[in-house]
Amino acid sequence: MTTCLDPRNWGFVKRATVNSILCIWVLTLTYASTAYVSSLPDIIRRYNISEEVALIGVTFTVLGFAAGPLLFGPASELYGRQVVYRVSGLFYSAFAFGAAFAPNAASLLIFRFFIGFFGAAAINNVPASIGDYTNLRERGQYSILYALMAFGGPSLGPLASAFIQNDAGYQWNFRVMAIFCTVLSILVVFVPETHGPTLLKWKNKRQGQAPPPLEFGKVMTVFKTAIARPMIYLFTEPVVMLVSIYLSTLYGILYGFFEAFGVVYMEIRGFKLTSYGLTYIGLGLGFFFACVLMFTYGQNQYIKSAEAAKAKGVPTAPEARLIPAYLGAILSPISLFIFAWTAPFPHVHWIAPVIAQFLFACSMLLIFTGFIPYLIDCYQMTAASALAAGMCSRALVGSVFPLFTIQMYHTLTVQGATSLLAGIACLLAPIPFVFKVYGSQMRERSEHAAA
């Protein structure tokens, strides 16, 4: 790709604007995934369904996160980011309004699935777009906003929607979600193409040098191969597999917490809906504080590693991205244990479990913002497929957790259930350190990763 076509040569204002639009578009989806929870009592009464069936609305949305990347990740590598964003944005907005005016429970649940399915083009492909218009040194900084929107959205959803639900009812809660995603989907229409091979293809076509179009059979063969690639990566690439296992577990815990918090604050501590919504400020502040850490400490550590590698005359290793994840891996189980042994005891001030939520959110973002740029650096031009494999596994786990969380917390108690999750987090904590020691060897043995 020639220099003039390279999105990495865009000015700062253009890159920052594109990055902001794409990342806030991600926020519209993650916000909608959990804002739904505040309307559960009204949904149960309106459609005459059980709480378990109503919760499927969360499960189906997150399940859409799992299915969508398998199509939109490879499609963006074949046809470019722009067309995928535009088509998915249209249907994403349409189904969001469909959910707002759903006549029955079945249609509501179907619309919620397709909201997640078409919205997944944002949450999966935006990191690949960030890789398109940033160089190695900048990538971590631009990824911070994405991580904040991807994880901050689920905590913002219950906080804002609690007040909307309380003051305006469930229909306006759903309408706000639909309006929010539609406004951003319209802005995304104006985002230029960033995918290098697609830009080069367009240039060759303008100059009359484009190769003849492939026959339909060959196109389908190429597309099938591209769709299969995320699953191939998930089960044959140790790097993708380990990252997916770790992030999937944390993602499941996060989505399970949205039901667990209700047990703690509303059932045990007797909070009202709006007061309960305010407890999510702890999560939001944790995500924000982690962003500050990534922008300062994380970026400084990466620059030091890059300069050391340059002095030795070697490329910067992708493992340099994981320095903040070391802290996050240690902090994650600690925060869960604190929550387990403070949250269910009303005589312990409510600020204690909120601090635990703050620490857990901080640890999640530190881990996430380490691993996502790490995958982009490792797989480069096929990063969308590597990210799709991770997003698919995360969404599958995240969609299942809300279905059994309330029962688990009632059966095992809050301290028992959360301690179990903390123990799992302890078992997974060594993964970033495994990459530190063996990451280069894994990449050298891989057929797809950059050595």
Automatic annotation (TrEMBL):
It comes from Mycena metata. The chain crosses the membrane at residues 12-33, 53-72, 84-103, 109-130, 142-164, 170-191, 239-258, 278-297, 322-344, 350-376, 383-404, 416-435. One of its GO terms (cellular component) is plasma membrane. Residues 18-441 form the Major facilitator superfamily (MFS) profile domain. It is a multi-pass membrane protein. One of its GO terms (molecular function) is transmembrane transporter activity. This is Major facilitator superfamily domain-containing protein. InterPro entries: MFS, MFS_dom, MFS_trans_sf. It holds the Pfam family MFS_1. It is found in: Membrane. Keywords: Membrane, Transmembrane, Transmembrane helix.
